[in-house]
Amino acid sequence: MKQLAYIFFLFLLVVAQAAAQEGNEPYEIDVVCQGALRTYRADGENGSTWRWMLFDADNNPIPLDVEEGRDFTGWDEEGNQIQGSEYVMDWKFQPGIYYLSVEQTSEFSCDSLQKGYVQIIEGPDAFAGDNRLACIGNPVDLYDAWAIRYSEVIWEAIGGDGSFDDPTAERPVYTPGPRDYETGYVTLSLIAFGEGYDNKACEPVIQTVTITFNDLIAEITAVPPDVCEGEPVQLNGNPSGSGNFITHTWSGDAAHLLLLSDPNSVDPVFNATGDAEPGDYTFIYTVADDAGCEANDEITITINAAPLAEIIADVQDVCKNLPVQLNGNPTGGSGVYASHTWTGDAAHLELLSDLNIVNPIFNATGDATAGNYNYTYTVVDENGCEASDEITITVSQELLAHIDAETEVCEGVDVHISGNASGGSGTYSTHSWTGDAEQLVHLSDLNIGNPVFNADGTAAPDIYTFTYTVADDAGCEASDEISITVNEAPEVPVLVAIHPECNETTGSIEITAPLGAEYTYSLNGGEFQANGLFEDLTPGDYTVVVRNAENCLNQASATILPVPDAPGVPVLAATHPDCDNPTGSIEVTNAEEGYTYSLNGGEFQSNGLFEDLTPGDYTVVVRNAENC
Fold it and tell me: What are phi and psi of 56, to 5 degrees?
């Protein structure tokens, strides 16, 4: 808005007259800004006529729209009424000196002329500077501000709470306040007042500049922040702010900086080569932007010592069906181990007693086929550091042992035992038989695969249990067990042979012991019978076998003698009674030793002489040793 200045010409006239009296030159009426509107008044008598005139510096007239101006009435400072003419001038002309005059003609035709000059000047101009970024915490130097054609400049902070070192300086320094930072920006106003009376000749020029406070921030992130020995860490300075980032710098111990992949990038990798020793590593990240602002952050990375894992196994080449004690054997790290894990093929893992302990047992049970079983043991300590080791357990082809032998025999019978091995490596290094010491004495050899049991026939009736163990050249073993029952044999049969008698053709054999319902008997390999008497036997040799309830046998032999020969017809000599002897006698004249004789069925006697016989018929029978 243009400023209107009301100049009372009476005052100017008085001054002008005073100046004229001194030098007879026009006096300066006003200094105005090009394009300004000014109202000028001239006091005079009531009833006067007026004529306003304008001349340039060369006294050339400049036509005015309304030369007579316009009448006005008013009051002076003392309260007296005044009147006169006023003219509203639009100073649209080029800067320079112009002469303004007014001619008054009173109602009495008296003329008077009032004249002064007005200087038109250019208005002020100013530039508050380019909008810019400023660093938080730093004063703002308004180095690019300027103002021309001014009498005075004033800086103000619009809504801000900062301060200027000199608010009337053309290029002051502004120190932001807390509210400026909280808002994030501040608008600074430069007011340039023009030259002229009381700085009001021209409208002031107002220019503004917005200072945005660069909230440049550096906030380091590390993935992960605490790592294990040998692991890399991805760092990132994570700068943020309104400016453009120009430089990124990581600083710290010189030896530590060598472990950064690039200390001049925003996101270097720490320990990319895995050479960092356990310990703390401190780095400072600094970012600078195009506004000259800097921000930094600090981080300490802890490298924890890594644990070690080294699996220990009782054996790695294991025989089927034998357990193997495993041990992950962790060492190092924090020394406190949070977890133990065994991994591998799912089917193989079923053979471990526990997948989450340090020392499970591998069981090469009947479900484990011959082959290789691969396992990985992983230990994690309380810092999250882990280590692993692998092991391969080889399960051999199953070694089998099987005993072939009779399991029930009779007393006195030997048994050929066969310990049979199969599978395993195929090369069997040892064979051994174990059992009760008193029973083992009845094996012919304890260290061969096929000993003889009861070879000497001394094994008493009992149950004899033996274990056969075979080992192959891989150290695998297999066993089998056998129990042999030795049943009691019947006693040797007692035979009574009944030979053929005289005039008989056959004899018999009778078993007198053992006797009982449990026994049966066989003659010369014939069918067994419960009756112990064999009759109608022709003379000859016979074998009788007795069998008990356990089918055990014993035998004896007997001979049926041939039919005996009958003695010859006795030759008798009869001695008859005579006169002197009333009795007679009979004598066997062919008597033989061993023969006996009977008379008329009487008792047999060895003497062949029968005396004192009364007369009559007599029969003499001769009998030999075979009772014929």
Answer: -80, -175
- Condensed to tens digits (0 to 9), the pLDDT of residues 320-373 reads 888 889 999 999 999 999 999 999 999 899 999 999 999 999 987 767 788 899
pLDDT in tens, 193-206: 988 766 667 889 99
What whole-number distance in Å separates Cα of residue 516 and Cα of residue 580?
Answer: 69
Nearest in space to 508 (alpha carbons), one of 546, 565, 561: 561
Instruction: Residue 578: count other Cβ atoms within 10 Å of its Cβ.
Output: 9
For 580, half-sphere exposure in the C-beta direction (CA atoms, 13 angstrom radius) is 1
Distance CA 344, CA 371 (A): 15
**Distance from C-alpha of 431 to C-alpha of 451, rounded to nearest angstrom:** 10
Q: CA 301 to CA 282: how far, in whole Å?
A: 6
The average pLDDT across 284-290 equals 92
Burial class (CB in 10 A: 0-12, 13-18, 19+), 30: buried
Residue entry with tokens 């808002």: 183
Biggest alpha carbon–alpha carbon distance for the chain: 268
- Distance (Å, whole) CA 237 – CA 219: 6
Cis check for the bond before 490: say yes or no (omega within 30 of 0): no
Residue of 4, 99, 102 lying closest to 60 (CA atoms):
99
Name the CA dihedral angle for 223, 224, 228, 234, rounded to a multiple of 10 degrees. Answer: 10
DSSP 156-217: EEES---EES-TTSSS-EEE--HHHHHHTEEEEEEEEE-SSGGG-SSPPEEEEEEEEEE--B
Distance, in Å, from the CA atom of 165 to the CA atom of 171, rounded to the nearest integer, reads 10
Q: Is 535 exposed, middle or buried (0-12, 13-18, 19+ CB in 10 A)?
A: exposed
What is the CB neighbour count within 10 angstroms for residue 174? 23
State the number of CA atoms in the 13 A half-sphere of 182 facing the CB.
7
How far apart are the C-alpha atoms of 543 and 534, rounded to whole Å?
A: 11
Q: Burial, 47: exposed, middle or buried (Cβ in 10 Å; 0-12, 13-18, 19+)?
A: exposed
Task: Return d(Cα 210, Cα 157) in angstroms, integer.
Answer: 10
Coil, strand or helix at 472: strand
d(CA 359, CA 238): 46
**Cis? peptide before 582, omega within 30° of 0:** no
What does DSSP say about strands 494-498 and 111-121: parallel, antiparallel, or unpaired?
unpaired
Backbone region of residue 182 per phi and psi (left: phi > 0; alpha: psi in -120 to 50; beta: other values) = alpha
In what order do the strands lie in the sheet containing 5-8? 5-8, 37-43, 81-90, 70-75
Question: How far apart are alpha carbons 328 and 316 in whole angstroms?
Answer: 14
Q: Residue 392 forms beta bridges with which residues? A: 374
